[in-house]
Amino acid sequence: MIHTQLYIDGQWQAPVAGGKRAILSPADETVIAEAAEGTRDDARLAIAAARRAFDGPWRNSTIRERAKLLNKIAELIDKDAENLARLESLNTGKTITESRTDMGDIAATFRYFAGLVASESGAVNEAPHHVISRTLREPVGVCGLITPWNYPLLQAAWKIAPALGAGNTVIIKPSNLTPLTTHRFAELLAELDLPAGVFNLVTGGAEVGAELAESVDVDLVSFTGGAYAGESIMKAATGNFKRIGLELGGKNPNIVFADADLDTAVDYALNAAFFHAGQVCSAGSRLMVEDAIYDEFIARLAERLPRIVIGNGFHAETQMGPVQSAAQHEKILKLVQMGVAEGARLVHGGKRPAGAVYEKGFWLEPTLLADVSADMKIAKEEIFGPVITAERFTSEEEVLRLANDTPYGLAAAVWTRDLDKANRMSRALRFGTVWVNDYHPYFPEAPWGGYKASGIGRELSRIGLDEYTELKHSYINLAPKPMGWFGA
Length: 488
Hints:
Blueprint: E1 2-3, E2 6-8, E3 11-13, E4 20-24, E5 31-36, H1 40-55, H2 63-79, H3 81-92, H4 96-118, E6 123-125, E7 131-139, E8 142-146, H5 152-165, E9 169-173, H6 180-189, E10 199-201, H7 206-214, E11 220-224, H8 227-236, E12 243-247, E13 253-256, H9 262-274, E14 286-290, H10 291-304, H11 326-342, E15 345-348, E16 367-370, E17 387-393, H12 396-404, E18 411-415, H13 419-428, E19 433-436, E20 455-456, H14 461-466, E21 469-477
Parallel strand pairs: 1-5, 8-9, 8-11, 9-10, 11-12, 13-14, 13-18, 14-17, 16-17, 18-19
Antiparallel strand pairs: 2-3, 4-5, 6-7, 7-21, 12-20, 15-16
Helix pairs in contact: 1-7, 2-4, 3-4, 3-6, 4-5, 7-8
C-alpha cells in the first residue's frame, strides 16, 4: 500500500484536516494507495511558501542555475523511469509500454527546456547612443499548475519545466484520481537543494484548484482538463487578472480521402482512437471517411476490432487497458447508448468485455459507431474513451465545413496522397495541430494547444516558455540633462 503526503515549503506533511482518499486500480478496483487529501487551508500554506520563495532567494537564481536544475531533473527521471512507469500504469490503467514512452518524453521535455533556458538573453533595441534600451523576460511569479488524470506526469512536466526554468515558483495539484507519479516526482525533487517553497505539491479535490485560481497571491494558473472546470478557473482568475493557460480537450476529426493509402489509414485510425483507451485530449475519435471508400473502411475496422487485446497493462501482449474510473466508464456507455438511440449503427463493442477477468475494473470493448451524422450528440461531445464515431462525406468542401463546425479546435488529421489538397486542408482546418498522413506525434520543440473552446495559450516550444514570463522594457539614460521645458 502506497501512502502519500503533501510537500509544502520543503517539508513533507499531512493535510491540515487530516484528509485521505483511497486510490483504486482501474484494472480490478482494489485500493492501491491512500493519498493525502488537501483542502483550501493546505493550498494557502503552499501559496504562502511559494510567495516567500519567489520574493526571496529564488528570484535571484541565474539562467545557468535553472538550466542545470532542469537537466538534473531529467537525469532523476531517467534513473527512476521504470519505477515511475509502473506507478503510472498501476494508477491510470495504460499499458506499461505507453508509460515507458511517457517517461522518455518527460525527460526529453526537461532537457529541451534546459537548453532553451540556457540560451536566454535579453534583446538590445536600437536607441540613441546615450541610451541602453533592452527587452527583458522575467518570471511571472507564483504559478498554480493543475493537471489531468490521463497523463499525470507528462502534463505536469509540460508545466513544471518551463515554469521553473523561467524562474517561477510552483504549486502543483494533480488529479485526485491519479496522484501517484506526481508524488514520486516530488520525492525525487526533494533530493535536490532547491530553496524551500520553490516547488510545492498539494493533492486534493476541486477546492484546492479553486484556491489556486482565486488567490491574489498566485500570478499564473495553468490548467489541463475539462471545459466546465476550465470555465470556472477562468472566472475565478479575474480576481487579480492573473495569467491563465487552459488546455480543455477537443473533438478531433480524422479525415480520410479516397486517394489515401488505405492500409495505413486504417491502422492509424485504430491508433488514433484506442491509444490509452481513447483517453487522450487529441484522440481521433471522430472518423470522417470519403463516401467512395466508406463501406470498405468500416469493414476493415470491423475486422480488426475483435483482435485488439484488452487486458492488464503490465502484460506484454496487452494493447489496450481499462478506462480510468467508474464515472468515466458510465459516461462512455451512456454516450454510446445515446448514439444508438439517435440512429448510429453499433458495429462493435459498446459494452464490458466478456470473461471473469473483466468483472471487476473499468473495462470497455473498443467501440465503433458507424453512419453517424453531424447533428448527433456523439459527433459533437468529447467522449474520452475507446470509441470511434464514423461519418461519410462527399467533397473537400463538405468535410471542411463539418470538421470546423465544432466548439473545439485542438487537433485534426488528413489522409491523402494529394499534397496540394493536404496543404489546403492544413491551412483551412481551425485546429492547433493538423497532422497529414500521421496521428498523435508531438515534439517539445513544437507548440501544443487549441483554438476556440480547446483552450487559451500554448504549451511546449519557445512559446510555452514565454507563457511563464513577463515582458519588460528596460530604458537607461546614460547622460541625463535638464530639458529646460516646463516653466524654464
